[in-house]
């Protein structure tokens, strides 16, 4: 008996593989890279169709476990709705249950010729479930690619590294540059009022400063600036015209509000006199606020403003950010223990960019791209080129994630022999 039917071949990612006419070397049936689901009509006898259905999917539902691990390792787990993951698992189970009715473990028919009608209905339902799985997985991939784009708040820390006074001077120059870049992108910034006064004073030095940034897409872009920035030039303090190499480190931490819940009963709030300049207000008023998280013992302080209630709000914000970041790092460590290659995290020990003033050149070592007119760049006159570099890095990051997903698919699908 021959059956002519249109078989929708199973695929997880519409962008991972290209369309082919038969299983590739990994035993995977694929469709093209466009969103439209491709079909191919095949005319086979019932036994060949059963074999094709068996090869169009994996034999065990273990891929869901591997894919869920991939989501956790790349911090995508919260991007995928529980409803969609449940719907995917339920559809997968339905497919396997119907497939067991059609084919036995050795790939042979489990019923006699009198059950051809029932088997035909089961095959049609099985193919319908395959098409539904393709659509669900397309939605899952769309949600996974959203990843951190909805994080519109981050903590931006700049710190002078190796190089002494020259490093602190360059840190101040980078700080001014990023302030202009933040304005260029329409983001908002929150910082110490006293520190804002030296924003444009290039002769001042900066050892460390942390600012809070709010704005659409600020974290996905600024995270590519995290790392070590190296400067090569003749310092202002150099008497003999020698070129020095100094470094400045930048850390970009996403502010995540939903990882942990901070209870007021777990907080110990103390007030005391602020330290540093400030006149009689510092000596007479208890403006500094210190908060201790009793379950973990972590402590933060705030004395940025002259008012206690404002410092309390800032300290609470710092505590929530700290606890969320600790939880975020803990989840990352647990997931990455089983994986060698890390994705999407900038290593602060590696230089990402070199600013060579004698050669009038800026080199991004991740792209091997060079920019010139370094004075104009540092003055904030070429923020558009700076944005282009970051956009390229974001594209490379997603390409790397696609590659990781492809490798995951190739390793965890059951390899089937070609027809």
UniProtKB/TrEMBL annotation:
<keyword id="KW-0648">Protein biosynthesis</keyword>
<dbReference type="InterPro" id="IPR045853">
    <property type="entry name" value="Pep_chain_release_fac_I_sf"/>
</dbReference>
<feature type="domain" description="Peptide chain release factor">
    <location>
        <begin position="108"/>
        <end position="225"/>
    </location>
</feature>
<dbReference type="GO" id="GO:0003747">
    <property type="term" value="F:translation release factor activity"/>
</dbReference>
<keyword id="KW-0488">Methylation</keyword>
<dbReference type="InterPro" id="IPR000352">
    <property type="entry name" value="Pep_chain_release_fac_I"/>
</dbReference>
<comment type="similarity">
    <text>Belongs to the prokaryotic/mitochondrial release factor family.</text>
</comment>
<dbReference type="GO" id="GO:0005737">
    <property type="term" value="C:cytoplasm"/>
</dbReference>
<dbReference type="InterPro" id="IPR050057">
    <property type="entry name" value="Prokaryotic/Mito_RF"/>
</dbReference>
<dbReference type="InterPro" id="IPR005139">
    <property type="entry name" value="PCRF"/>
</dbReference>
<dbReference type="Pfam" id="PF03462">
    <property type="entry name" value="PCRF"/>
</dbReference>
<protein>
    <submittedName>
        <fullName>Uncharacterized protein LOC113799304</fullName>
    </submittedName>
</protein>
<dbReference type="Pfam" id="PF00472">
    <property type="entry name" value="RF-1"/>
</dbReference>
């Amino acid at each position: 008996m021959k059956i002519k039917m249109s078989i929708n071949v199973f695929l997880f990612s519409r962008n991972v593989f290209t369309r082919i006419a038969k299983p590739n070397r990994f035993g995977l049936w694929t469709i093209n890279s466009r969103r439209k689901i491709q079909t191919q009509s095949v005319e086979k006898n019932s036994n060949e169709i059963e074999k094709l259905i068996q090869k169009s999917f994996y034999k065990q539902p273990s891929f869901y476990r591997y894919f869920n691990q991939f989501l956790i390792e790349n911090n995508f787990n919260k991007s995928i709705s529980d409803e969609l993951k449940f719907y995917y698992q339920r559809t997968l189970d339905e497919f396997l249950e119907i497939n067991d009715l059609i084919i036995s473990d050795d790939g042979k028919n489990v019923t006699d010729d009198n059950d051809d009608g029932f088997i035909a209905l089961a095959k049609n339902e099985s193919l319908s479930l395959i098409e539904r799985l393709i659509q669900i997985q397309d939605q899952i991939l769309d949600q996974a690619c959203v990843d951190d784009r909805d994080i519109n708040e981050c903590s931006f820390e700049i710190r002078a590294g190796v190089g002494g006074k020259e490093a602190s001077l360059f840190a101040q120059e980078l700080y001014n540059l990023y302030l202009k870049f933040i304005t260029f992108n329409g983001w908002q910034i929150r910082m110490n009022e006293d520190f804002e006064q030296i924003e444009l004073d290039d002769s001042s030095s900066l050892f460390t400063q942390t600012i809070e940034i709010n704005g659409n897409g600020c974290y996905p872009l600024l995270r590519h600036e995290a790392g070590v920035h190296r400067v090569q030039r003749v310092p202002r303090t150099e008497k003999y015209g020698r070129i020095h190499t100094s470094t400045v480190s930048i850390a970009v931490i996403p502010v995540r509000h939903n990882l942990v819940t901070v209870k007021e009963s777990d907080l110990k709030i103390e007030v005391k006199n602020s330290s540093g300049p400030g006149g009689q207000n510092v000596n007479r008023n208890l403006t500094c606020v210190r908060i201790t998280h009793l379950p973990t013992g972590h402590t933060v302080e705030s004395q940025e403003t002259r008012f206690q209630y404002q410092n309390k709000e800032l300290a609470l914000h710092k505590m929530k950010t700290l606890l969320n970041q600790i939880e975020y790092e803990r989840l990352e460590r647990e997931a990455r223990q089983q994986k060698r290659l890390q994705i999407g995290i900038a290593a602060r020990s590696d230089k990402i960019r070199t600013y060579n003033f004698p050669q009038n050149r800026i080199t991004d070592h991740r792209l091997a791209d060079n920019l010139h007119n370094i004075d104009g760049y540092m003055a904030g006159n070429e923020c558009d080129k700076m944005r282009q570099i970051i956009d390229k890095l974001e594209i490379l990051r997603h390409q790397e994630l696609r590659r990781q997903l492809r490798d995951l698919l190739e390793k965890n699908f059951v390899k089937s022999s070609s027809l």
